[in-house]
Write a structure and sequence with these properties.
Layout (H helix, E strand, L loop, with lengths): L4 H4 L5 E4 L3 H12 L4 E4 L15 E2 L11 H17 L4 E11 L6 H14 L9 E3 L1 H7 L8 E12 L2 H14 L3 E3 L2 E9 L2 E9 L5 E5 L5 E4 L5 H6 L1 E3 L2 E2 L11 E8 L9 E5 L6 E7 L2 E5 L3 E2 L11 H14 L10 E9 L17 E4 L8 E5 L6 H15 L23 H9 L6 H11 L3 H10 L15 H10 L5 H8 L13 H11 L4 H19 L6 H4 L1
Parallel strand pairs: 1-2, 1-11, 2-7, 4-15, 8-12, 11-21
Antiparallel strand pairs: 3-6, 4-6, 5-6, 8-9, 9-10, 12-13, 14-17, 14-18, 14-19, 15-16, 16-17, 20-21
Helix pairs in contact: 2-6, 2-9
This protein binds flavin-adenine dinucleotide.
The site of flavin-adenine dinucleotide has 39 residues, from helix 2, strand 8 and strand 19.
Length: 557
């Protein structure tokens, strides 16, 4: 139960709608620069597009083809910042591009792209590219199709294995800096008087209680609802009557799906960036969390944003194209462990090829539509969320007619930031060596960074929390308790899908449910009823969002 009375009595400088990575980045920046900030998210933090990406922190090599040079430059700058401010979450990733004579991107073009990418990365710490002649390529990658091979290229980008946790750390940092952050609260009306939004009507998911978030005469409302941006605008109210804001559609989302598979015959030990044989689209095969993440597709989307799932033909496309490049892989539908889909919040560009729609972010100021204190974000990659926050908060100060304080997020570490040589790492390795395995320690540090120390501290008072959740997995019970007590997790889906990656392991996480609910009832006060409801909710989620239609597990759930 949450008490919304205090919130109703506060007048906020900044109201952020949507707790994906962009909303989280804006709220963190605003709170750190002293704005009285509230962020409202209709589901869990990062439950939208931010949890459905390829998890790359990348300059976007592909964007060079569309001459989006400023976007590449900006993304590479952000990549470098994240490698330093979140080294526990964002790690360098080596990518390999096989180049074939019969495909649309010849050797010289990739080479030119590599040189440009290096030039744009000139002041960065990651190593430059190298080109591989065919003989060397075949030696390094004997399992990759060599028919028509013209050689290869290798370069570095970043990977954020736990993208949901990148968003969460921004939320936690915003909260620590004084922002109010609410999950499971939906904005249902933007209430307008004259040409300003004066308040928001919100609804708590758990109690159906409605309450008001108030602004003041200089407040700004930021719409970072990702692919839902237009729906938020449609919820405008004026003088108690429905009054949608603006008539034009701003978002023209495209759907992208991924599959997760176990390591397979011929699987590469670096990431592959491959041009699909059937349609020339580039896609990734990425080692990820002990498995492989393969994606993505890119299709115009007009359906229900809250019921997204990979279609059979998207899954078959990704399997077929992986088998084309690694013929011994022979992946089939039965190898698919997990799937997920998201909709990119791209600008509406009716009739344009999905891959060619710009990936740069646009701030839409609704003054043109008669509302002077609403700004919507259109687009915005995971990689550039910090930059979006910086620019947006600068704009807010300017629009409020105030001095713009310097943005702190360019060098302020995220809450879990820690470097491998930190003396605290060695101390806990020694202190907990009899209770926690090395594999679990590595896992905890790569997921929680310095917050590993807080998780381990739970074991001091409750030794049972050092027990692993499932024999083959490194995760321990303390993570579950930590998620509920300190990471704003409410449901099994929050815990298994966004605080950890337990959903992706062992039969969609179904096998883990008894151990998890036992822990939650023992340490977090979940009663029998809550445990049953949560198991049902979890199974619905897996069925609706992650389980392919052809998968036989569905009948056994
Ligand atoms: C398939 C795919 C692959 C991608 N790969 C990459 C990649 O490798 N690297 C990269 O940099 N980018 C990638 N992206 C892009 C990136 O993931 C997104 O652009 C980014 O996550 C968008 O974040 P966001 O916060 O704007 O939107 P979202 O994460 O969608 O957040 C919006 C939030 O608003 C909430 N909301 C909606 N309506 C309301 C309401 N009425 N009240 C309250 N809350 C509301 C939603 O629940 C949601 O959580 C990829 C995207 C896709 C789809």
């Amino acid at each position: 139960m949450r008490n919304f009375n205090e919130i109703q009595q506060t007048n906020y400088d900044l109201i952020v709608i949507g707790g994906g990575v962009n909303g989280a980045g804006v709220a963190r920046d605003a709170a750190l620069r002293g704005l009285k900030t509230i962020l409202v998210e209709k589901g869990d933090f990062a439950c939208g597009t931010s949890s459905w990406s390829t998890r790359l922190i990348h300059g976007g090599l592909r964007y060079l083809e569309y001459f989006e040079f400023p976007l590449v430059r900006e993304s590479l700058k952000e990549r470098e910042i994240l490698l330093h401010t979140a080294p526990h979450l964002v790690k360098p990733l080596l990518l390999t591009i096989p180049i074939y004579r019969d495909r649309s991107r010849p050797y010289w073009k990739i080479w030119a792209g590599m040189i440009l990418y290096d030039i744009f990365s000139a002041d960065k710490t990651l190593p430059p590219h190298r080109m591989l002649p065919p003989a060397q390529f075949k030696q390094l990658f004997p399992s990759i199709d060599s028919d028509g091979l013209a050689g290869g290229a290798q370069y570095y980008d970043g990977q954020v294995t736990y993208a949901e946790r990148l968003c969460l750390e921004n939320i936690i940092s915003a909260k620590e800096a004084g922002a109010t952050v609410l999950s499971y609260v939906k904005v249902i009306h933007l209430n307008r008087q004259g040409n300003r939004i004066t308040s928001l009507t919100c609804k708590d998911y758990w109690t159906d209680q409605e309450f008001i978030v108030n602004g003041h005469d200089k407040s700004i409302v930021i719409n970072t609802a990702g692919p839902w941006v237009d729906y938020v605008c449609q919820s405008g109210m004026k003088d108690g009557k429905e009054a949608p804001i603006g008539k034009t559609k701003k978002i023209g989302g495209t759907k992208g799906s991924h599959i997760v598979v176990n390591p397979f015959v011929g699987a590469p030990n670096t990431s592959l960036y491959v041009e699909a044989k059937s349609d020339g689209r580039p896609f990734f095969i990425v080692p990820w969390d002990g498995m492989y993440l393969i994606g993505t597709t890119d299709q115009p989307f007009k359906g229900n944003l809250d019921q997204l799932k990979a279609d059979d033909d998207e899954i078959d496309y990704l399997l077929r194209e992986t088998n084309n490049i690694i013929p011994n892989a022979r992946l089939s539908r039965k190898d698919v462990k997990f799937t997920y889909s998201g909709v990119r919040p791209l600008p509406n560009a009716e009739g344009k090829k999905p891959g060619s729609i710009t990936r740069k972010h646009i701030f839409f100021n609704h003054s043109k539509e008669g509302v002077t204190n609403l700004i919507s974000l259109i687009g915005g990659k995971l990689t550039t969320y910090r930059q979006v926050g910086e620019e947006m908060v600068d704009l807010v100060f300017k629009q409020q007619g105030k001095f713009v304080p310097p943005c702190p997020t360019g060098d302020k570490p995220l809450p879990g930031s820690i470097l491998p040589g930190d003396p605290r790492v060695q101390r806990v390795l020694t202190e907990y060596r009899d209770r926690v395995s090395n594999q679990t320690m590595d896992h905890l540090f790569s997921m929680y960074g310095s917050k590993t120390l807080d998780i381990l501290a739970l074991i001091d008072s409750e030794p049972d929390l050092a027990t692993v959740i499932f024999p083959e997995l490194p995760d321990i019970k303390a993570q579950i308790v930590y998620a509920v007590r300190y990471e704003l997790a409410y449901t099994l889906v929050d815990i298994m899908r966004r605080r950890t990656t337990l959903s992706m392991h062992s039969d969609y996480g179904i096998d883990l449910l008894p151990s998890l609910t036992e822990t939650l009832s023992r340490y977090c006060g979940w009663d029998e009823n809550k445990c049953r409801q949560e198991k049902e909710r979890y199974i619905d989620y897996i069925n609706n969002n992650c389980l392919p239609d052809f998968d036989s597990l569905k009948t056994s759930l």
